[in-house]
Design a protein that fits this description.
Layout (H helix, E strand, L loop, with lengths): L3 H14 L22 E5 L8 E4 L1 H7 L14 H17 L2 E8 L7 E9 L9 E8 L10 E9 L9 H8 L11
Antiparallel strand pairs: 1-2, 1-5, 3-4, 3-6, 4-5
Length: 185
């Protein structure tokens, strides 16, 4: 991670998760990251709605010129990057991985704006909607409203003590009670 805000938020999130893969949503206390709240957001894990914002910080809303609540997160990306960002979100939520990405955005004045995006999962609980949090950190100050985001790089950060399960197996492992084994009679 290059941006100090992302390093600070990741360190706080990492401390809250302890030995687990991710902290519970209720473990994150806004007062502890007060200086970062303007850049922090929470997304609902709803692919059909484009992973809508549940909450978005004031600086994130100001960069995009609108209140982002219930707006599509993946819809902020240019068509060529949309599928990649949706796959990154799926990996973060389903495999409980942290991800960091480099982004650029078009500005009306011409030069591109550069950002670092941090996506962090929350622990999932039965009968609760799945959500994830993140921080969008600009590398330079911007006065103009931004256009479509474009992914320039990304990587996942696995939790060292635990092996990562493939998404298909993780979904099965979350099912409680009845187990169906294919191919047995």
């Amino acid at each position: 991670m290059k941006h100090p805000s992302n390093r600070e938020f990741f360190a706080y999130w990492d401390k809250k998760r302890g030995d687990g893969r991710a902290p519970d949503r209720t473990d994150i206390e806004p007062g502890a990251v007060r200086g970062l709240l303007g850049d922090i957001f929470v997304l609902s894990y709803d692919a059909g709605a484009g992973y809508p914002f549940r909450v978005a910080g004031t600086r994130v809303c100001a960069l995009l010129g609108a209140d982002l609540k219930d707006k599509s997160f993946s819809g902020l990306f240019e068509p060529g990057s949309r599928r990649d960002i949706e796959e990154i979100i799926a990996a973060v939520a389903e495999e409980t991985l942290a991800a960091v990405a480099g982004l650029t955005a078009a500005t009306p004045g011409g030069p591109q704006a550069h950002f670092e995006l941090l996506l962090l999962p929350f622990n999932t609980r039965a009968h609760e909607p799945v959500s994830l949090t993140g921080l969008l950190a600009p590398f330079e100050a911007h006065q103009d409203l931004l256009g479509d985001f474009k992914l320039t790089s990304w990587r996942y950060m696995a939790h060292e003590p635990e092996k990562i399960m493939p998404r298909a197996l993780r979904k099965i492992a979350l099912a409680r009670g009845l187990m169906v084994y294919e191919g047995l009679r």
